[in-house]
Design goal:
Order of helices and strands: EHEHEHEHEHEEH
Radius of gyration: 16 Å
Distance between the termini: 15 Å
Number of domains: 1
CATH superfamily: Formyl transferase, N-terminal domain
Number of strands: 7
CATH architecture: 3-Layer(aba) Sandwich
CATH class: Alpha Beta
């Protein structure tokens, strides 16, 4: 059985999709640990509720991004993951982390490939829709590289805008697409690793 470590910063609804898929057998993997850079992240409670080790690693006390990333990588490695899933992890990982897990870190981003990299992607896409610039946005899962939201894409979903959408109604549909996508893309990435080995 493949082993996942999931990194989060917030509520963990995408983590919940992975937990549910793993428990139902829809995703052939065990979630070995969930790690957050935010102590208040509700996703830590979701993990603890089903017996998954839930760990908080604060960035405070580290002199720079690289030293935090080295400590995070050490913590992740203790759980021997086959794949690391960034499911709403709101920190940019440097090569100090990524180089230790080449081709084994995937990231969920709430925009289509090549569009709206970085933070507030949903809000920026909605503003572009309101300005008449786009008719759809979406979400993708890609391999993480030092350049933000720019690694090779594993899978994506397009989510169209509807005429009477508000930011909230669009975001709700997008999050629904994310929950399906993160399971599907994680499964695909694990399958791809098996083929590479």
């Amino acid at each position: 059985m493949s082993r996942l470590v999931v990194l989060i910063s917030g509520g963990g609804s995408n983590l919940q999709a992975l937990i549910d898929a793993a428990q139902s057998g829809h995703l052939p993997a065990d979630i070995a640990a969930v790690i957050s850079n935010k102590k208040s992240a509700y996703g830590l409670e979701r993990a603890a509720a089903v017996g998954i080790p839930s760990i908080f690693l604060s960035a405070k006390g580290f002199p720079d991004r690289e030293s935090y990333d080295v400590a995070l990588a050490r913590m992740v490695r203790e759980h021997r993951p086959d794949l690391i899933v960034l499911a709403g992890f709101m920190r940019i990982l440097s090569p100090a982390f990524l180089d230790q897990f080449p081709g084994r870190v995937i990231n969920l981003h709430p925009a289509l490939p090549g569009r709206f990299a970085g933070t507030r992607a949903i809000e920026r896409a909605f503003a572009a829709f309101q300005a008449g610039e786009i008719t759809a946005s979406g979400c993708m899962v890609h391999y993480a590289i030092p350049e933000v939201d720019a690694g090779p894409v594993i899978e994506y979903r397009e989510v169209g805008f509807e005429p009477h959408d508000t930011l909230d109604t669009f975001a709700a549909r997008l999050h629904g697409a994310e929950h399906e996508l993160i399971v599907s893309a994680t499964r695909k990435a694990l399958r791809g690793m098996g083929e590479r080995e």
